[in-house]
Write a structure and sequence with these properties.
Elements: H1 10-16, H2 21-34, H3 43-51, H4 59-68, H5 88-93, H6 125-129, H7 136-143, H8 161-181, H9 187-203, H10 209-232, H11 236-253, H12 256-272, H13 276-290, H14 296-312, H15 316-330, H16 347-360, H17 364-377, H18 383-399, H19 403-414, H20 423-436, H21 445-452
Region (Disordered): 85-123
Organism: Streptomyces tremellae
Biased composition (Pro residues): 96-112
């Protein structure tokens, strides 16, 4: 492996211009969809390219970048020729190392990609990921890569960059698949990599302090991600346990970013579980941790979590005050210092969170206006969130006395539920259908009720 220092990619940084890494990553994902590609681009990936850590993108990213910047070559974008960075030429004469950048995972966990990849695109990074873990066999099976050979000395070596990087990539993979498909089909598959990540930590074989800090952060973020999968699939107690695990990891590592994330999700879970005072306390604890971080958007989200808790308690004044603080912080715009996991938190999510607060306070027309804004603004990349916003809009409209509009929004939500498996979203569909049963004579309502399974005994 080359030990040459990374050279910052100034050409690529110039192309980003005034956009934040998160905004540029969103533009990359949009461009990918335009040409039928699927890439998991986020702010961290953009940072790795700009720092020179990624000297040449994989083939999917190459096609996307050349589509975004017609007339330019990879060299014009600041990348090195593929043959010079452990590409095809290196593979002809040496054992196969990892390619310039790992390929995108299969869209459906546990299943192979729809089309075969070129040999040079296959990465052995995940194959190396959990080799020092006692859970290596199960972890590799979960990731869809070959397990270590029987009798191999798992755990005998030091934990280095490849293992830490693979834990981080697994977090991104879970988030990507959750955005597209929802949590129900992912939760059980995700628990084994989580166990393996903590086994790496417990091994005590991390080779450098910086790697140890990244591994703590990666394992903690993986715990939050698995907790979210449990939350979204209706497994509240398991979600609480995973969030607590992440919080403990944050405290051990003195990691305020992970601590704020764990408290943010704990507040959301508590609110969904009807424990509104706990939601307020968790959000406030997250805000204390976030004071150490230069991210207004993170504090904005935590104030929204606090507002939701106050609204659940019926405290309109406190909820309104928290919403005001959230608006002020959100208006400062995105920042390079925003945590990577916050890529979902844009105007659509803010509008939906605000809709939830007004709904909890019983102001259904106002909630419907914000829910409609969420559906209108949402990027289709976040399939699960779009389905969620649409069904929340249907519920708000039904509660507002607009059954025909509610039925239309409900149909739009059901259109996505073939792609999304989320017990939480389907629970809201059930609630919406029950609210609309007395309005079955309104235009479109009967069709929605039949399609949703209301009154037929069929599961939604």
């Amino acid at each position: 492996m080359s030990t040459s220092p990374a050279v910052p990619n100034a050409a690529f940084r110039a192309l980003r211009g005034s956009r934040s890494p998160a905004e540029f990553a969103a533009a990359v994902r949009r461009a990918a969809r335009e040409i039928g590609e699927q890439v998991a681009c986020d702010a961290r990936y953009v940072g790795r390219v700009e720092s020179g850590e990624i000297r040449c993108p994989n083939y999917a990213y190459e096609r996307v970048f050349l589509h975004m910047f017609p007339g330019k070559s990879l060299g014009d974008l600041g990348f090195t020729a593929r043959e010079a960075v452990r590409g095809r030429g290196a593979r002809e004469t040496a054992a196969p190392p990892a390619p310039p950048e790992p390929p995108e995972p299969s869209d459906v966990p546990g299943h192979p990609p729809a089309t075969a990849r070129r040999p040079e695109e296959e990465s052995d990074m995940l194959r190396r990921v959990f080799m020092t873990s006692g859970s290596a066999g199960m972890a590799c099976a979960t990731l869809g890569v070959p397990a270590p050979r029987r009798g191999a000395h798992a755990g005998a070596g030091r934990v280095g960059e490849p293992e830490v990087r693979a834990v981080e990539e697994e977090v991104r993979r879970i988030r990507l698949l959750d955005d597209r498909h929802g949590a129900d089909g992912l939760f059980r598959r995700a628990t084994e990599p989580l166990r393996a990540a903590y086994a790496l930590l417990d091994s005590g074989r991390v080779s450098q302090q910086a790697l140890c800090e990244r591994l703590h952060a990666g394992a903690g973020e993986l715990a939050v991600s698995v907790g979210w999968l449990a939350h979204d699939s209706g497994r509240f107690e398991q979600a609480r346990s995973h969030y607590a695990e992440a919080l403990a990891t944050a405290r051990v590592a003195d990691d305020p970013a992970l601590e704020a994330h764990a408290f943010c999700n704990t507040a959301f879970l508590a609110d969904d579980a009807g424990k509104h005072r706990e939601a307020v306390r968790a959000a406030q604890a997250g805000l204390r941790a976030a004071r150490r971080l230069p991210s207004p958007r993170l504090r904005s989200l935590l104030h929204l979590r606090e507002a939701a808790g106050w609204a659940g308690l019926g405290d309109r004044a406190a909820a309104t005050a928290s919403l005001g603080r959230a608006h002020g912080l959100f208006a400062r715009g995105p920042s390079d210092d925003d945590p990577e996991w916050m890529s979902f938190f844009g105007e659509p999510e803010f509008a939906w969170q605000e809709a939830r607060c007004h709904a909890a306070l019983g102001d259904w027309p106002r909630a419907a206006r914000h829910a409609y804004r969420a559906t209108a603004l949402q990027d289709g990349h976040f399939t699960r969130n779009l389905a969620l916003y649409r069904v929340e809009l249907a519920l708000c409209l039904a509660k507002s006395g607009s059954p025909d509009e509610a039925a239309a929004a409900g149909h739009a939500a059901l259109d996505l539920l073939d792609q999304v498996t989320s017990s939480r979203i389907r629970g809201i569909v059930t609630t919406t259908a029950r609210v609309m049963l007395p309005q079955r004579r309104a235009r479109g309502v009967q069709d929605f009720l039949a399609r949703s399974g209301a009154g037929t005994g069929r599961p939604l």
